Each structure stands twice: as structure tokens, then as C-alpha cells.
Amino acid sequence: MKYKIAIIYVLIITFANQVFADVIVSDSGKLYPTQVCKVVYPTTIEQIQDIIKEAHSKQKKISIAGMRYCQGGQSNATDSINIDLRHFNKLLAIDLK
């Protein structure tokens, strides 16, 4: 069982940062499909910064996806770089003050 979990974890990490070009993203109800330039799955702040720099240099819009619960397609921009934050899920700091 431990090995299966480890293999699944490795597969998730391996494919978490894969880029899928010319894809369709949609809202939770699949009512507003939108073609985006690509979808990226960053796991670090540095990767997000690089994505923003790339978008700026290519004059692309950025759209942000959290858990994709939006029901009106508001967060998806046509021909944008879609940043899917589902894998950006690590606690970075806690301020106890």
C-alpha cells in the first residue's frame, strides 16, 4: 500500500508542472468553455513569477483557476495563460501574532 501511494505521489509531482497547449477550460457547470493559450500548474512562487514574466513578454492575459467552482466563466480569458493553482497548496508560513 505504501508503494502505491508513493508511486501515485511521484506521478502527481512529475506531471504537476506539465503544460497543455491550446486547451479548453470551463466553469464548474461546463456552460462557458473557453480556449486558452495554455494551462500551467505551478507549485512554487518562483514558477508563478516566471509565468507572469512570460505572459508580460508575450503580451498574454492571465487567468487564474482555483478549484474551478466558478459558475459563470468569469475567471477564464480567451487566449490567456491559465494558472491552475490546485497544486500550489503548501503552507508557507504561520504568523502567530
Describe this structure as you would to a colleague:
It contains two helices and four strands; from the N terminus they run αββαββ. The protein has helices spanning about 1-15, 45-55, and strands at about 20-25, 35-40, 60-65, 80-85. The chain has a four-stranded mixed sheet, with helices on one face. The longest helix is centred in the first third of the chain and has 15 residues, at about 1-15.
Features:
4 strands; alpha/beta; 22% strand; 97 residues
Brief description of this entry?
This protein is of the alpha/beta class. It has helices at residues 2-16, 45-57; strands at residues 20-25, 34-40, 62-65, 81-84. A 4-stranded mixed sheet has the order 1-2-4-3, with helices on one face.
Strand content is 15-25%
Largest sheet: 4 strands, mixed
Which strands sit side by side, in order, in the main sheet? 1-2-4-3
Number of strands: 4
Question: What is the helix fraction of residues, given as a range?
Answer: 25-40%
Helix-strand makeup class:
alpha/beta
Order of helices and strands: HEEHEE
Distance between the termini: 41 Å
The low-pLDDT segments are none
Could you report the average pLDDT, rounded to the nearest whole number?
A: 76
Task: Tell me the Rg in angstroms.
Answer: 15 Å
Q: Per the principal axes of the C-alpha atoms, what is the gross shape?
A: globular
Question: What is the helix tally?
Answer: 2
